[in-house]
Amino acid sequence: DNINLAILINTVLNNELLSGEIQELPIVGNMKVGNLNIALVCIKMEDEKYRLYNYFDKTNPLKIFHEDDLNGFPMSPYIGMKKAEIIMYSNISCENIYQSIVETQGDNNYFFALNHFILELIDAYDESGKIEIYELALKILDWMIEKQPGSNNMYLINKFQLLKRRRELSIEEIEILLRLKNEEIDLMMLTAICILMDNLSEAKLYYMRLEENMQESFKELPIYRLWENPVN
């Protein structure tokens, strides 16, 4: 632990290069210091030395692109994080994650990937109970709704399922869900809307009309936990 702490001070705080006999380091690595897990970006230099950065600092130079069938598009380096990493890392900065996300000029593919990150955040909140994760997810969703108004009902459903984890939905929010329900034809979306409205009998009707593989997929979504364990 003392060695790792010294490395952190010398490389991240004092901006010194990591040298010596070093095994190949991953681009993003985890360094343990006592009970802490510190996420680092490790950039290999030409002289086989490494420059280390706090993964969640604004000075993080990591740039990533998502590859799909047609083209790559820029992404925030954080939206590929999974639930376990969100919970585990001690140096996580929700504010810097948010700033990185909103400063990335992404297209529809970016928002699609970002919505998957939201689900990881909800999973992480459910397991850890950390209010900062809840607030980060809500803040990102508000930004997504503002940037793509009316383009994707899923953003609103994810926002409302977050809110429902901490309070009852308001009359105005229920009215929005009623509007979405009248517009929607997707069975998974209709099931989710009915769960949020506490109409569990109707939710079951829509759910039973799903193909078996889609039923299994639905069970993996965070909203399914609201059906299994109603909070209100």
Quaternary state of this entry equals single chain
Strand order, largest beta sheet:
1-2-3
Name the helicity range: 40-55%
Strand content: 5-15%
Give the overall silhouette: elongated
Number of distinct beta strands:
5
Number of helices: 11
Give the radius of gyration: 21 Å
- Mean pLDDT, rounded to whole units? 88
Poorly predicted residue ranges = none
Question: Strand-and-helix sequence, N→C?
Answer: HEEEEEHHHHHHHHHH
Explain what you see.
By secondary structure, the protein is α+β, with helices and mostly antiparallel strands. The protein has helices at residues 2-13, 83-88, 94-103, 108-128, 131-147, 153-164, 171-183, 187-196, 200-208, 212-219, 222-228; strands at residues 28-33, 36-44, 50-54, 64-67, 72-75. The protein has a 3-stranded antiparallel sheet. Strand 2 (36-44) and strand 3 (50-54) form a beta hairpin. Helix 4 packs parallel to helix 6 (153-164) and helix 7 (171-183) packs antiparallel against helix 8. The radius of gyration is 21 Å and the shape is elongated.
Write the layout of secondary structure elements.
Layout lengths: L1 H12 L14 E6 L2 E9 L5 E5 L9 E4 L4 E4 L7 H6 L5 H10 L4 H21 L2 H17 L5 H12 L6 H13 L3 H10 L3 H9 L3 H8 L2 H7 L4
Antiparallel strand pairs: 1-2, 2-3, 4-5
Entry keywords:
three-stranded antiparallel sheet, elongated, 11 helices, single chain, 5 strands, alpha+beta, 12% strand, 232 residues
Short overview:
The chain is of the alpha+beta class. It is built from eleven helices and five strands. The chain has helices spanning 2-13, 83-88, 94-103, 108-128, 131-147, 153-164, 171-183, 187-196, 200-208, 212-219, 222-228, and strands at 28-33, 36-44, 50-54, 64-67, 72-75.
